Amino acid sequence: MQNKLKSWLKEILSFVLIAILVANISSWVRSPSLKQKDLPQFNLELVDQTIFDHSTRAKESIVLYFWGSWCSVCSFQSPVISTLSKSNRVLSFAVNSGNNQQIKAYLEQNDYKFPSFNDVHHQWSKTFKVSAYPTLFIFDKDGKLRFTEVGYTSLWGLKLRLLWLELWS
């Protein structure tokens, strides 16, 4: 019985490791290749009518999150981003998700607390060459792109990346 249990655990561990490897390869292949690796300066009016000002560097890392209310994977990623935004600088870009009132209602209905800009004209998704959702960009405190993720990323995965930047940037 014990050998059978060890065999099953070994199979499960192998499957999990292969799944992680495949997910990371998939994210790497689908990641946008940006020529510009510096975070552009911007001053945006968010869906809640507040202003997100990043015209002067905040001297802290920032996560940019491109998502859509129609995106099934985003429905798993958004709660992670909402939790992350409580302790880290996050700005999200809603794509093809309606007008500001619809996005605001969607955020409130799902209890998402991250700041969101309505990328109604796809200006920012084109700037960042986003073609798959969700896509995340993590910039260090100096505004340098350090990580790009496409698809679901766990809270711990994001926190570890941000910790890495805090310790070694």
Structural write-up:
The chain has 169 residues and is α/β, with parallel strands linked by helices. It folds into two domains: 1-30; 34-168, 3-Layer(aba) Sandwich (Glutaredoxin), CATH 3.40.30. The chain is 41% helix and 19% strand. The chain contains five helices and seven strands. The chain has a five-stranded mixed sheet with strand order 5-4-3-6-7. β6 (135-139) and β7 form a beta hairpin. Residues 19-31 have low confidence and may be disordered.
Task: Summarize the structure in short.
The chain has helices at residues 2-30, 74-84, 100-109, 123-127, 155-168; strands at 43-45, 51-53, 62-67, 89-94, 116-118, 135-139, 145-150. With 169 residues, it is α/β, with parallel strands linked by helices.
Overall form = globular
- Average pLDDT works out at 86
Q: Tell me the Rg in angstroms.
A: 18 Å
Share of helix, binned = 40-55%
Order of helices and strands: HEEEHEHEHEEH
Instruction: Give the CATH class of the largest domain.
Output: Alpha Beta
Unreliable residue stretches: 19-31
Which fold name is given in CATH as the topology of the largest domain? Glutaredoxin
Structural class by SSE content: alpha/beta
CATH-level-2 architecture of the largest domain? 3-Layer(aba) Sandwich
Overall number of strands: 7
Cα(first) to Cα(last) distance is 50 Å
Number of helices: 5
